[in-house]
Amino acid sequence: MDGKFDVTTEARKPTSPGASYSYPAPSAVLELLKPVTWFPPMWAFACGVVASGVPILSNWYIALVGMVLAGPLVCAMSQAINDWYDRHVDAINEPQRPIPSGRVPGKWGLYVAGIWSGLSLLVAMTLGTWVVIATVVALFLAWAYSAPPLRLKRNGWAGNAACGFSYESLAWVTGTAAMLGGALPPVGVLALAGLYGLGAHGIMTLNDFKAIKGDREMGINSLPVLLGPERAAQVACAIMAAPQFVVVGLLMSWGRFIEAVIVVFLLAGQFLMMRRFLRSPIKDAIWYSGFGVPLYVLGMMVSAVALRALATA
Question: What are the Cα distances from residue 15, in Å, to 21, 27, 104?
């Protein structure tokens, strides 16, 4: 043996004397799907719904189905496939998680990811052509991020770009497309969705600070591993901030001055919190995720409101 963790063997070991598992418990599957991670794409989808300019109350069913697609289906699938291919790293960093702990035994992590991928496509087909296209791209990126041979997460630049594009840009575009009957969203929506997805690259980097030890051991070149914690924190902050300046410029060019000023104030609040994060990136990455990132995503909704005003003018 080469000393690496064998999840196929370990997953079949009982977690308590006399216990034996062939199938995961529903609670273990739910933990694998990580509901806490569903909020970002669901929020981005909601931004797309608002930005469409389509009456929401009379189309609430489409909005509801789309949010299920963005969060409990596509995002949840990405969490399952990531945990399956990260089982060796998790055995070092977080051995209590469902797969390394054996609560999701055998290859059930992989099976869940496959089943959820199929369900995602079926639901997307009820919402129109461009929703299907966006969903296919999101599913491809989710598998490419975690699974060989691409395994984009091995490089922090490529992996975080894939996540940011999927969680923010594609979810936003999907929301607008769903409300427009599956049509391609207008250029303004595509521009802001792309910019906020670019900024989300920095948000994804925040998640990497907690796993530096395991990433180094397993050869995953996250930005904190590649650049060091201090430099990675600086890059993350710059990537989060720069697109928001462009958003402000676009809003002003469209005559949406009130929304532009609000985004400026939200950005100023982020800068104040970034100062603390930059002083102690490993210690305060989770803190900044909890307090600074919400200002970023609030700016997304403010920008969506501006697009809605333009669409209904």
Answer: 9, 15, 11
